[in-house]
Amino acid sequence: MSIPIIALMIPIVAIVMGIGIGMLRLWLDYRNKRDMFKMHHAERIAAIERGIELPPLPPQFFQDYPYPRGASDSIRYLRNGLVLLLVGGAVFLALDEEGGLDAAWWGLVPAAVGAAFLLFYVVAARKLGARNGDAGSSPSSGSNGGPNGSPNSGQTGAPSGGAPERSGPSTPSQR
Predict the structure, then answer these.
(1) I need a labelling partner for 17 at 20 to 30 A (CA). Which of 3, 47, 148, 152 fits?
(2) Nearby residues of 111 by Cβ (< 8 Å), 6 or more positions away
(3) pLDDT digits over 134-152, tens only?
């Protein structure tokens, strides 16, 4: 019995594309940072030649994570928790229907991970709320959630100036 060539190509293409997409992302990130450094360097050289005060370095130079951190992190935990919980429930029900209860238990693995994400979301929101002085607010409260009455103050973890402060280097374990 021969295996069709398409059956052999599917895992090969999946592995090559997965690695290729990761390498493409790294290369694009490197190219963007290189262009940003080159542009900022030329700007600083021109300012020195003209005797103009040097502009401060942009905060993008000091962060490894390409997206701003803060409220988006807590929303990401909420989204991931809900998706995994619902996918786990759907897998559980599908496997229960097709393979019986013995196979259906595997659907509870992503559901448990989703529940852990949701639990972390709730605990982190309460801890952030207690730190900002509004321990009674719920994690999803949209109005009057902050200490000064603004809808989103006190929930992002970022200073009011926009970009959050960074206390040290960002590592994958901190994300």
Answers:
(1) 3
(2) 84, 85, 87, 88, 89, 91, 92
(3) 544 454 444 444 444 444 4
Q: Is residue 172 part of a domain?
A: no
* Prediction pTM value: 0.42
Q: Give residue for tokens 């599917």.
A: 10
Structure tokens at 174: 């901190």
Cα separation values, 150 from 22, 144, 147, Å: 40, 6, 8
Provide the domain limits for residue 33: 1-64
Same domain (yes/no): 110, 59: no
Amino acid identity, position 65: Y
Q: Which parts of the chain sit beneath pLDDT 50? A: 135-137, 139-175
Per-residue model confidence as pLDDT tens digits over 96-124: 888 888 888 888 999 999 999 999 999 88
Residue 59 is classified by DSSP as G
Q: Are residues 78 and 141 in the same domain?
A: yes
Whole-number Å distance between alpha carbons of 63 and 65: 6
CA atoms of 88 and 154, how far apart (whole Å): 33
> pLDDT value at position 19?
95
